[in-house]
Amino acid sequence: MEYSDRNELHARENRLIERFINGDAGAFADLADLYKDRIHQFIICILGPDREAEDIVQEVFIQIYKSLGNFRGESSFATWTYSLTRNVCRRRLRDRGREAGLFGDTDDKADYELPDMAPSTEISLENQETGKIIRAAVDGLSPLHRTVIFLSCWEHLSYAEISRALDIPVGTVRSRIHNAMAALAQKLKPVLDMEAR
Amino acid sequence: MKCMDKGIFVDYLMGELGRRQRAESDIHMASCAQCRLRLETLRRAMNAAAFITPAAVSEGFTDRLMRRIEQERASYAPSGLQEKAFSGFRRLFKPQWGFALTAFAACLIVGAMFFTGNRQTAITHGETLYFSDGPATVNNYFSAPEKPTATNNISGEQKTHIYTDNCATAKCGLL
């Protein structure tokens, strides 16, 4: 779900949160409708395709339900939610006995170089086939790159918000976005080259 | 101006550059085909990534979620009687009472420590047992004969009984 006006989205979220805190349970269902797909996608970005992804989305919403009364609004609801989702995923991975370096800021030290592309190359995004190729390319990236692409390109969060959501320094956010984009450009290079012909 | 740092490209595309820095970058890129191409490549990758729609959850997700929340609430909610008792407890014990009780307990503990810690053990002039070859080292278990063989003032006020080895041996059989 794409929201062109972030301010409008924030205002709507805040109204729903206020209604929920004042005892309107229906407001929580609206909040869930607003965020269910986005949290689902974020979980897939962290864990990869996972058959328990929907269960985890439920777990995240139950956590939100229990702790929304303590939400002080110091950060945006989106940042708070993604940070909470990340913690739920982390716990789930720990239960499965694999946490690896998915959550640290040390696993992205490689210097990603941008591929050389023809200046006139542009992907025709309307093409459904191209859409599938792009999704496959994003899915083929590392969890670190997928999560940062999700938060920056889809959610349009600022550096500071991404930093809070992922619990990494702002400098790491910058370099990680660059590396994620460079890695994606490398994966999309064959498509781009083909389109240029 | 030298070629742009990779962080600047991202700042540029994310709209995190200040007005002045952005103007400087524009001037540089106007004369640098390499940086222009790099920015363009990153921009296209970003546009492509933004094109994807999030993977949707299955139909009826919100209904299932709200049912589960309702079930969890029901399992945790206290029964009528428990609720009454709990609300009575809450009425009786307000948080500020807890703080007052804690402070009172802390005062009691500190007071007890002060009075007991200040008291010194009364100094009594004990009896030191001496054998003919020196002071007794096991006098906790030593039973001396009722009548010492000699009494002496060795160290001023200290009253000292001197026993012979024979007395000790005769009495306890250990020394």
Our estimate of the beta-strand percent of chain A is under 5%
Question: Could you give the distance between the termini of chain B?
Answer: 99 Å
Q: Could you spell the SSE succession of chain B in H and E letters?
A: HHHHHHEEEEH
Largest sheet of chain B: 4 strands, mixed
Order of helices and strands of chain A: HHHHHHHH
Quote the distance from N terminus to C terminus of chain A. 33 Å
Shape of chain B: elongated
Number of strands of chain B: 4
Task: Output the CATH topology of the largest domain in chain A.
Answer: Rna Polymerase Sigma Factor, Chain: A
What count of domains describes the coordinates of chain A?
2
Helix content of chain A: 55-70%
Query: Residue ranges of chain A: pLDDT <50 for 5 or more in a row?
Result: none
Net shape of chain A: globular
**CATH class group of the largest domain in chain A:** Mainly Alpha
What would the average pLDDT of chain A be, to the nearest integer?
Answer: 84
Provide the gyration radius of chain A in Å: 18 Å
Rg of chain B to the nearest angstrom? 45 Å
Share of residues in strands of chain B: 5-15%
| Mean pLDDT over the residues of chain B | 73
Note the quaternary state here: heterodimer
SS field, number of helical segments of chain B = 7
Write structural notes for this entry:
The complex is a heterodimer of chains A (197) and B (175). Helices cover 67% and strands 0% of the residues of chain A. Chain A has 197 residues and is mainly α. Chain A folds into two domains: 6-95, Rna Polymerase Sigma Factor, Chain: A (Orthogonal Bundle); 128-196, Winged helix-like DNA-binding domain superfamily/Winged helix DNA-binding domain (Arc Repressor Mutant, subunit A). Chain A is globular. Chain B is of the alpha+beta class and 175 residues long. In chain B, strand 3 (150-152) and strand 4 (159-162) form a beta hairpin. The relative contact order of chain B is 0.06. Chain B has seven helices and four strands. Chain B is elongated and about 85 Å long. Among the domains of chain B are: 6-51, no CATH class; 128-172, no CATH class. In chain B, strands 2-1-4-3 form a four-stranded mixed beta sheet, with no helix packed on it. The A-B interface holds A 1-2, 25, 28-29, 32-33, 36-38, 40-41, 44, 54, 57-58, 61-62, 65, 114-117, 119, 121-123, 125, 131, 134-135, 137-138, 149, 152-154, 158-159, 171, 174-175, 177-178, 181-182, 184-185, 188, 192 and B 6-7, 9-11, 14, 16, 36-38, 40-42, 44-58, 61-62, 64-66, 68-69, 72.
